[in-house]
Structure formats: structure tokens, C-alpha cells
Amino acid sequence: MRKLIILSAFIFTLVFLYLTEFPIIIDQNTYKGEARLQKLRKGEKFNFSEKLNIKIDENCKLVFIVNDRNDVADDYKFGKVFTTTNHSLINEFLTTEYTYTGADVATVQNEIYFYRNNQCVFKTLIISDGESEGLQSSDFGWIQPEKDKQFSKILNNFERNYSPIIVLK
User: Fold this and answer.
1) Percent of the chain whose pLDDT exceeds 90
2) d(CA 83, CA 89)
3) Which of 26, 31, 80, 98 could form a disulfide with 143 if both were Cys (CB 3.0 to 4.6 A apart)?
4) Helix locations, the chain, DSSP H
5) Structure pTM?
């Protein structure tokens, strides 16, 4: 009986540790595409704060989900889900100047979500692998930040989430 308890505790610990490294993510977002981003012209420069008329308050957060380690820089911390409620980081992300390229990138799998008052206002796919950076969305296609390594500077300051189950609402 004692061996069974020890074995069960060991298996439970292994499963828990696995799930903290690779959590189960349940996406219940009711996000709807933002029409103001669909009317971009090739070469147009913009930022999300102005284009979407987003104001930052105490109930804002960014969630970064790493589904593909190849799309993040090699020196980025290990984990799957990272978050921040730091207003200066959120503001830096939202006020980053982007250029609309008119192209699409099909292989992006990492995601970033912007929440305000516990509601998903904006979501997109993201690449920040050290060589190239950009956002891909069905709402606007492929856009790139004006400054090199802009996302790396922001994302490296996110905090890792260790919860084994994460519900995105």
C-alpha cells in the first residue's frame, strides 16, 4: 500500500511539473476582428494605441503564448505562457510604430493577447526570433515594427505563468 501511495505521489508530481511547463490552455475569448485594421495601405505606418483608440488603465494586461520555440529568440526564457500588467510595457507595445507590408506569413504560431477589463480587445500572432520580428493577423496581414528587436525588449520583461491550466476569457 505504501508503494502505491509513493508511486501515485510521484506520478502526480511528474504530471504537475509537465503541466507547469506545457499548460493546458482553454481559449474562451469572444474576440471579434477589428475593422479599423482592415483598411491599411501598403507602407502605412501606425500604432495600435491610435488606430484602435486604446487607453491604458489599471485593468489592462498582455498575454504572450509560445507555441513554437523557433519563433522566439534563443535567449528567451523557457515557458509557454507569459503575462504583464506593467503599464509602461503595455504602453510601449501599443505605441510601437508598425509598417503595413501588404504581405502574409503563414507559419506564425505564437500568440499575443491584449485584455482590458477582462475582455480580449486585440489578439494577433507574433514572431520575435532574433532575426525577424512582426505581427500576423487575419485582420491586417503582416506588419513589422519600425525598430529592430523592439518585441524582444518588451517580451523579455513579461513574467512567466506557472499555472497548469490557463483559461483565456
Assistant:
1) 24
2) 11
3) 98
4) 2-21, 48-51, 87-95, 150-155
5) 0.84
Angle, CA of 164, 166 and 169, to the nearest 5°: 170
Contact 124, 71 (CB under 8 A): no
User: Which residues lie below 8 Å from residue 67, measured CB to CB, with a gap of 6+?
Assistant: 80, 109, 110, 111
Q: Give the whole-angstrom CA distance, residue 121 versus residue 94.
A: 12
| Three-state secondary structure string covering 48-96 | HHHHCCCCCCCCEEEEEECCCHHHECCCCCCCCEEEECCHHHHHHHHHC
- The region, left, alpha or beta by phi > 0 then psi within -120 to 50, assigned to residue 132 is beta
Quick one: cell of 65? 503564448
Contact 166, 26 (CB under 8 A): yes
Mapped onto helix, strand or coil, the DSSP state of residue 37 is helix
Give the pLDDT confidence score for residue 82 in this predicted structure. 94
